[in-house]
Structures are given as C-alpha cells and as structure tokens.
From TrEMBL:
Protein family according to the UniProt entry: Belongs to the bacterial sugar transferase family.
UniProt topology in membrane: Multi-pass membrane protein
Organism superkingdom: Bacteria
InterPro entries: Bact_transf (IPR003362), EPS_sugar_tfrase (IPR017475)
GO MF annotation: an example: transferase activity
The Bacterial sugar transferase domain, residue ranges: 280-469
Pfam families named among the record's database cross-references: Bac_transf, CoA_binding_3
Main location: membrane
Name of the featured protein: Sugar transferase
Cell compartment(s), UniProt: Membrane
Naturally occurring in which organism (per UniProt): Anaerostipes amylophilus
Enzyme Commission (EC) number: 2.7.8.-
Length: 475
C-alpha cells in the first residue's frame, strides 16, 4: 500500500507540473499574439502541436530522471536545484525536437523562454505549498497511516524524533506503548502513552484507529516479539520490527531474501534501478560505436607516426582490474618505447603520486609522438572497444593495474564495485594536480554513492572540454 501511495503522490506532483507548463505556454501565446484565436490563425495546428511536444518532453524527463525523489525532505536550495534541472532538461528537449522537425525558425523565442521561466517559478512556489499542506496535515489527515509505537522509555523520544525528521507524508505516530515502566496518561513529544500491559495494548488497538505497529526494542530486553506480532496479525494490523543487530550502517540497503532454503537479510550499497542501468549501457554502446569510428579515422594519421618513431606494435595492451576484481585487457595506442614496463621499476623512486598509482610528469619512457597523443587523449581511443565489449563504461572509476590492485587495502576495493570507466569524476576534478591516491579513492566512492545518469552526462561534457584544453592525466 505504501508503494502505491508514493506512486500516487509522484503522479499528483507530475500533474501539477503539467498544469504549470500548460498555463505558462498558453499565457505566453496570449501575450505574444493578443489572444488564442489570433495565435491559431497565425500558427494553425502548430499552436497545439508545440504544447503537446512540451508536455511529452516533461513526461520523458519525469520517467528518465525521477525529479521527485526525496520530495518531502527537500529544503529550499534543493527545491531550486531540482526544479532548475527539470526545466533546463525540458527546455533542451523542446529545442532539440524543434531542430529535428525543422521548426526552430518558426518557434517564437518569447513563447519558448516565457514558458520555461514560468514553469520554473511555478514549480518552486507550488511544490513548497503542496509540501507544507501534506506535512502539516499528516497528524490528523484521514489519509495518513496511524502508527502505534512499542518501545522503552529511554528510546521513545529519539525514535519519534527520527521518524518525524524523515517527513513521511502519509505516516504519523498516534499512540505509544512503553514496556519497561508504567507511563500511561503521560505524553512523549506530544503523543499519548496508551499502554503498559499486553491487555491494555491490544484493547486499545481493537477499539481505535491503528493502521500499523512499529516495535523498537533494544536487544538487551527480553520481549515476546513473536507472540506480539502474531496477535496484531490476527487483528489484520501490519507490524514492523526493528532488529538492532542489523543496524550496522544506515546507508546500507537491507532486503529480505532467500539463500537456498534459508531466509536472510541482505546488505548492499546504493541500489540502482534496472531501467537506469539499461540506459547507461545503451549510452555506452552508442558512445562505443561513435568512438570506434573516431578511432579508425585517427589511426590513419597517427599510426604511421607511431611506427616511424619507435619499433614495436601500434597498439599496447595491459591487464587491468575491473568490476569486483575481474581481470581484462585494456587497449591504447602505444605512446611509450617498447621496454616501458621494464623501465617502470627503475623510475618508481620518482613517482609523483602518494599511494598506489604511478604518475611522472616528464616520463622518459614516453616518445615524442606519445606526448602529443597523450596530451590530446588520442592514445585512449582504442578503449572504446572495451566500452563496447562491456569491460568498461564511458564514465566510471579508473581501472587499476594488477600490481596496484594487489597492494589495495580492503576499503580501496569499493571503487571497483562498479564497472570502470574511460573517464571519471577525479579526471575532471583537477586530475593534473591530484597527487594523493587516497583523494582519488574518496572521489571515486563519492561518484559511486551519488551516481546518476545526469552526473555521467556532466562528466562527459567536462571531459570533452579538458581534451580540447589539452589536459593529460594518469594512465
């Protein structure tokens, strides 16, 4: 039931945003042409076609980027940021469709800009009012779930405060049962204590509105949890049980699953929807195909220069470590002399990185042609084949060499829990100036924990800018 209510809220907010977009569009049309009849006479059916396109684009943005995540917990700065991203994506989509339809020259810039601007301010105001309405009324709204809390006197206030802070729009604690002492008739955070004994607790639940029960009992207390849950189940009341043993890390996702015949609680990091992963993979395949086309063109000019300057193969392959320790071969255009790997051991004393990664500004192993193709990142182009194969992604964490990986501490491996990338967050965060491997690990973990398709797109644009600037980084 909770999931369906959440979906309903997202749908209602989506409808409100559609109303704002529609209002902004037709107000703009009215201001531009004096009235809608004149606009229709001038623009014909295009008046409504462009409105439908705007609605379709906003719908696509909702499906792709889920702008209403954590809607009820947003502060004003988060609201402004989310709404700005939504209208920018919507505006960009409208402009792109207008170009594809060869309609851009006929598109009124006033209508276009006014609609986007109106929608932005409309969303900020309406979202804030909508949020305040639900959060203020959740304590007595008939739609809200009424919860009974069963806990101890020492935990009650903190549990209630933590639940209220979560700003769950359709949930409110209406009654408390304190199991370690008789506090019947008292209030905790303004919520009445209604029971101390089993009998009083079940009698209250039988004669009053109780949609759910939450049991939060510290592990040192012996409490007949199974019997309590069964009695509430017999009454048709959903019961949730907190298990203190499993509160290892609040950032971990916990799910009930089975391993063979055993029921288990599974712990995992941030979960990503299958739809978003498929979109990321589709972007990788498209980028890989385009990248290989660029690679083929580049090789026509680069290959003769590489072969003429130094003997050896055109392409260089090296074992790298991918997702969760999988070994794969990475490919590059050779930018070093053929004995570069043997010479690396002699140069380790001149390593400019603090930690497990090797980087040297004036590396004597690099050829003259190699300096150019590294500065322009041309040497990395064959890795689009790794992207197409699925060993790598367009955006991810840098895949370490095997010898680097063998020196990893346990916490370093978290940067390998996702598919490694051709570029990543640390490469666009000052890769020429970062000299501490631990800082790179911190940035990579930050990327993993905050991943979104929009973040990947921003990193790709920043990478292109750095390539044209000629910024080279660690290999």
């Amino acid at each position: 039931m909770g999931v369906s209510k959440r979906q309903m809220q997202n749908f209602l907010i989506y409808i409100l945003d559609m109303v704002g977009l529609t209002a902004g569009y037709f107000v703009a049309v009215y201001l531009r042409f004096g009235n809608l009849k004149t606009a229709y006479g001038y623009m014909k059916a295009d008046t409504y076609l462009r409105w439908i396109i705007a609605m379709a684009v906003l719908t696509f943005v909702y499906l792709l980027f889920h702008p209403n995540r954590s809607f009820f917990k947003r502060k004003i700065k988060d609201e402004v940021r989310c709404d700005f991203q939504t209208v920018i994506l919507t505006g960009a989509g409208m402009a792109m469709i207008a170009m594809l339809m060869a309609d851009a020259s006929k598109y009124s810039r006033f209508i276009y800009m006014f609609t986007i601007g109106f929608e932005f301010f409309y969303m900020i105001i309406v979202h804030r009012l909508y949020r305040k309405y639900w959060l203020r009324r959740r304590s007595n709204h008939s739609f809200a779930r009424k919860m009974m809390l069963i806990t101890t006197s020492g935990e009650a206030e903190q549990v209630i405060t933590n639940i209220i802070k979560e700003k769950i729009w359709d949930l409110w604690i209406t009654s408390i049962v304190i199991i370690d002492k008789d506090m019947v008739g008292e209030n905790v955070c303004g919520i009445p204590v209604i029971g101390f004994t089993y009998r009083s607790m079940f009698e209250y639940a039988a004669r009053n509105v109780v949609d759910e029960v939450f049991i939060y009992i510290p592990k040192e207390y012996k409490y007949p949890v199974a019997m309590t849950i069964q009695n509430f189940e017999d009454m048709g009341i959903n019961t949730s049980l907190n298990i203190p043993l499993f509160q290892i890390n609040q950032n971990l996702n916990k799910t009930l699953e089975t391993v063979g015949p055993y029921n288990v609680v599974s712990f995992s990091g941030r979960e990503v929807s299958l739809f978003m992963l498929l979109l990321k993979r589709a972007m990788d395949i498209l980028g890989g195909l385009v990248g290989l086309l660029i690679t083929g063109i580049a090789l026509i000019f680069v290959a003769p220069a590489v072969k003429l300057e130094s003997p050896g193969p055109l392409l260089f392959s090296q074992k790298r470590v991918g997702r969760n320790g999988r070994i794969f071969k990475i490919y590059k255009i050779r930018s070093m002399y053929q004995d570069a790997e043997e010479c690396k051991k002699e140069l380790m004393a001149q390593n400019e990185m603090d930690g497990l990664m090797f980087k040297m500004k004036d590396d004597p192993r690099i050829t003259k042609v190699g300096k150019f193709i590294r500065k322009t990142s041309i040497d990395e182009l064959p890795q689009f084949w790794n992207v197409l194969k699925g060993d790598m992604s367009l955006v991810g964490t840098r895949p370490p060499t095997v010898d680097e990986f063998e020196q990893y501490s346990a916490y370093h491996k978290k940067r390998l829990c996702r598919t490694p990338g051709l570029t990543g967050i640390w490469q666009v965060s000052g890769r020429s100036t970062i000299t501490d491997f631990e800082e790179i690990v911190k940035l990579d973990v930050q990327y993993i924990e905050n991943w979104s398709l929009w973040l990947d797109i921003k990193i790709l644009f920043k990478t292109v800018a750095l390539v044209f600037k000629g910024d080279d980084g660690a290999q």
